[in-house]
């Protein structure tokens, strides 16, 4: 394995950390409706836990409500119960052929709690990126111990990994700041 291979692997893993962070943050509810809010809701479909998106379509009706249209009418009560039990603080209203999910306005206190959660998620992503840097540097040190690279190459690789880490940590900070601004917007 060469330094380039290690660097490509590290960059790929760091990108995945950013994507994971973005995925986690879409679950957090801001002031406006987003179909991604219900992505993690699981439905009991023929005794198997199934993601909501596989049994219904979720669309944004307006800035404050979602509409869930199941592909089978008999799923309406199960979907209603699953959304209530998902811990999102939502109270769906079941109709004859769809379910409306009104999103209550967030209080200032709730917004501040959400900002804390966003910061925790961001710190988790930063730690993951630093762990990738540590793993990559240890792989480079192993190459040096095996006399496959020189000390200069090892030092240059360590500096490159630090620059890569700094770039991705800055990206995490930007994602977290954007989500915080989105949450605090009234």
Automatic annotation (TrEMBL):
Domain of life: Bacteria
CDD domains according to UniProt: RRF
Gene3D superfamilies: 3.30.1360.40, Ribosome-recycling factor
Ribosome recycling factor domain sequence ranges: 21-184
Major subcellular site: cytoplasm
UniProt subcellular location: Cytoplasm
Keywords on record: Cytoplasm, Protein biosynthesis
Function: Responsible for the release of ribosomes from messenger RNA at the termination of protein biosynthesis. May increase the efficiency of translation by recycling ribosomes from one round of translation to another.
PANTHER family, per the entry: MITOCHONDRIAL RIBOSOME RECYCLING FACTOR PSEUDO 1, RIBOSOME RECYCLING FACTOR
NCBIfam families per record: frr
Family: Belongs to the RRF family.
Name the UniProt record assigns to this protein: Ribosome-recycling factor
Organism: Acidithiobacillus concretivorus
Top-level taxonomy: Bacteria, Pseudomonadati, Pseudomonadota, Acidithiobacillia, Acidithiobacillales
Gene: frr
